[in-house]
Amino acid sequence: MIENPADLPILEAAERLRDGRLTSVALTVAHLDRIAERNGAYHAFLHVAAESALAEAARADEALGCGEDRGPLHGIPVAVKDLFDTAGMPTTYGSDVYAGYLPTEDAEVVRRLRAAGAVLIGKLETYEFAMVGPVFDRSFPPAANPWDVRRFTGGSSSGSAAAVAGGLVRTSVASDTGGSVRSPAAYCGVVGFKPTYGRIPARGVFVLSPSLDHVGLISASVAEAAITFDAIADAETTDAEPAASRLGGALSGLRIGYARKWFADDPETLPALLDAVDGAASQLSLLGARIEEVALPAAPDFESVGAVIIHAEAFEAHRRQLAASGDGYSRKVFQNILSGLCLTPEDLVRARHAAARLRDRIDRTVFARFDAILTATTLTPAIPFADFAGEAARWTPMRTIAFNVTGHPALSVPCGFANGLPLAIQLAGRAGDEATLCQIGHAYEQASDFAASKPPLPFPRAASDGRTQPAPSE
């Protein structure tokens, strides 16, 4: 039996909001109390909008009482990555350069969340400008992994993953340019959902790489990710089914291509991860899907193309700001952005053409035969913060950027543990077919118990200067 309303899945909370067993105000208070209790250890929230959230919750209750129902997110507390503009609410894009900045308009996604009746409870920590991390030369610490607060969350949607895994919110909106939704979700044992490129509008989201930037979700379950997606995605411009439309559907007859060699042959792949993904393939077969190994283009091909696009476009986006306020950037982020100086416009054009060829090849050779791809998200569990000491950026092995390069939807779902730390599978689907992807992910999630596992209760973690830092609030 669930005793704390903050632990209720969204659909169960929504049912209670409508039959009178729960109010949005009570639900919001439960989440605010949870944040106050745990955020000192996780550092997931940069800003807690307590006063405005309670006012929004009261309005949500009043609307439901008058028969106005805006959908499943009506009255549900949500949080957004601090890369999204929020009118009148601090928005720093994870950087001291924007300390004290208050946007005058909401990002389009935030506007849609409000229109869906969601209660915006605050802003979540992000790697600086969604670049490299974690870094320790900002005025606030990086988010910590709830499974072991001595370890990183992955990035750049670091606070989003920590908040969901730590029980602070059930769902959050984030961004993914090379794996920034899926890898933190994998490291923190929650669901990361990167839809098809452009399915969720990016207006009002700080630009990293326009060719690869995706708006996505980090949620406690596949169903909650699908519900959140359906509330904010463009529906009028596509014939695609709602992502939640096939939840609970049988997998019989679905064909899944298992890209096993894509990660199994990598020397950095943890043996326990390979065993876990093999186990997931077996489970999906037992659920009725037809599993067959499939060959994808080499992972380094995607990574090379993605690296050129990100570094070239990020440098162009930051060129003027670097000249004006480069001393406000953390050192690793400054160095990483400057690497784009080495690239020419011709390099970027060639990389974009290569991305189009890779996308076409996947469509012709894989999605012409299969409904989805199964592979790994990251190749290891989360690593310690200590591994990021020093001036050089530290990269961790994953298989995520390929689906930013091609724009196909991809979903990360927990699939096991290694030494008490989460592992995850990744599913990728045809462009616009989020429904099938969520159908498969939800079926696997329901047949396993990994998503139901919760991290240990937190203990205070001191910041680098020895102080435990609580979240700021209104």
Automatic annotation (TrEMBL):
Keywords from the named record: Plasmid
Domain Amidase: 27-438
Record GO terms (molecular function): catalytic activity
Gene3D superfamilies on file: Amidase signature (AS) domain (3.90.1300.10)
Positions of transmembrane segments: none
Stored SUPFAM superfamilies: Amidase signature (AS) enzymes (SSF75304)
Region: Disordered, residue numbers: 451-474
Superkingdom, taxonomy of origin: Bacteria
UniProt cross-references to InterPro entries, sorted A to Z: Amidase, Amidase_CS, Amidase_dom, AS_sf
Pfam families linked: Amidase
Function: Hydrolyzes indole-3-acetamide (IAM) into indole-3-acetic acid (IAA).
Protein name: Indoleacetamide hydrolase
Source species: Sinorhizobium medicae (strain WSM419) (Ensifer medicae)
